[in-house]
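Message: I would love a firmer grasp of how sequence relates to backbone shape in proteins. Thank you; the sequence and its tokens follow:
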Amino acid sequence: MPILSRRRFLKISTGAAGLVAAGCTDSADFSSSLFASAEGAETIRTVPTSCDICFWKCGAIAHVRDGQLWKIEGNPVDPLSRGRLCPRGTGGVGAHYDRNRLRVPLLRRERRGEEEWVEVTWDQALNFTAEKLLKIKSEYGPEAVALFVHGLGGKFLRHTMKAFGTPNIAAPSYAQCRGPRDVGFSLTFGEGVSTPERTDIANARCLVLIGTHLGENMHNTQVQEFAEAIDKGATIIVVDPRFSVAASKAKHYLPIKPGTDLALLLAWMNVLVAEELYDKDYVESYGFGFEAFAAEVAPFTPEWAYPKTGIDPTSIRETARAMARDKPATLVHPGRHVTWYGDDAQRSRAIALLNALLGSWGRKGGFYYPGHMEVPGYPYPPYPKPSRGKADNAEGKYPFADGTLTQGIRDATITGAPYPVKAWMVYGTNLLQALPAKQETIKAIQELDLMAVVDVVPSEVAGWADVVFPESIYLERYDDLNVGWFKEPFIALRQPVVEPPDGQKPGWWIARQLAVKLGLEEFYPWTQIEEYLDHRLKAAGTSLVEMKEKGVLPGPKQPLYFDEGVPAEFYTPSGKIEFYSLQLKEAGFDPVPKFTPPEEPPPGHFRLLYGRAPVHSFSRTQTNPVLSEMMNENEVWINADVARRYGLDSTSHVRLKNQDGVVSSPIRVKATQRIRSDCVFMVHGFGQTSKGLFPRYRRGASDADLITRYEIDPLMGGTGMSVNFVALELEV
């Protein structure tokens, strides 16, 4: 087998044949060569498919011009995209031409993290992985294998791992993102807000965004509906330490002190109750424990909240009254990435309670009830029952966790308790960017007997792997069906548009081949994914032939609101909306949320806030030549008055040093009045240290490096990560 040095690894990682042939050397060359090659082309072929840049999975139409992938647009019959894609989705063409793509399977040559590799065949890589997994299974049991997975493409690897016998399957999207929100709403209404969120933004007459950055976090349908709500004259209330894009559209902008959102939410609820502005009929019909709840929130007046939040009592009352005027078509957005300070499930519960007071759940302009289409699953054999439970929360420390905790599996890997975890399978998630405390992740990796990574680029986590499988991108493969729970139910197909440039393989193929090597072929009675898809689609009354032509099959209109016939059912212990939660009280938690002040920054430090940009999906798109041309590095937002005191302006660069002494790469300053003076902000996903990500190696600074501390939510185990502080170190 040939030895692959770092230099050779960089060379083979620049893989897309189309770019090499075009002689492209950077993103500007890519753009000019791509669009120049389209001039004068004679044939255009269109293929409906669906996007994979984020979890929204918008329906898309890919255009192939003169045999080359040319452009991607929204599918007009898809209820998610409605004929439009966000900047990331439109730029998805760049993923196919990315010079940094993984091309061939790789085995680690020496120590983990050295990024020195041996090129191998697919069969060698699969045999190596299967032999390791079977050895671990024989010594420790199948539960000693964990799968970390993100995205629709990982469904078949989930299937293989369940057939193998492990219960340890986790996605960072739970404990590092949406989990506290879903638990907070489930404790209140008996169910979560779904994915995509069941927010009826288009019909909202008042929209409240508290730390939710529509316009920067490009969840396509929501952003389109946000624009519609603005056009209709909806009242927009934005609460954020930073004057975001959404804040620029607001009638009321409240520049809150970071970490005090719960105090503001309690004060808003106090006003609605004290002034009897809440939806009395709704609360009386559907509420449980309202009198006890009202007594709990009585002390939390706007005057009480003022010194904590920095928001004056007049503004608190004015915005609470604005919400009440438009009820029930007032929507307090639940957010998505909500793991901030460690009290996040209770903060999300407070958002749910505020919506309940306004009568918005199950009402037009608030939260609708999503519909779906019935698509039977494939008739697989039953999975083996694991002999041990999950390793992430074995003692039930987090009693309301209804998803697997990634950091819990990491802890079990380090400690060996409740039992050893000796192998990680990683699909489509860069754990070194997604999990807090990167050094803990690296420590866990060093305890493994095997780490196998399936990815499309040599991400940071791939650099620590024992074996790396190069996956084809979403425009080159089939994935499982997307059966959408949405305002308009639908079935959507992702299908290949072009061939992968260097023989990369789809996730379903990797998962199936690995299963065969593991002796699990009975769980894959089909040999090609087309057989699987056609079986499911015919059981649903359509076919693969029809879906390949249409891409999206919308379903019949279904009732969305209580007044359209949706049953007002709440799957809580009381069968009602729980203003006062006895199940929380019995578990030793506050039945109504309480505010605890967050830790203050040390002298000379600022709270580190992080978020998204409209043209990138975290670290996934950093090497995409189209998207990186629009934003090729991040910057740190610093209040202009603070910057002036430090002698900085928007031409300066600084390093950020966190409370534990970790120092970032240099990062450009954005001196602006659009952020409070007690915090700084940066876009997540930059500053990556994988040498295979040339030329994005260390471009910008990594917030993940600086997030060395986190607070764990006591209800469900989410990791609050906005608890780190940084000082500014000037670049000479």
Q: What stands out?
A: Confidence is low (pLDDT under 50) at residues 1-39.
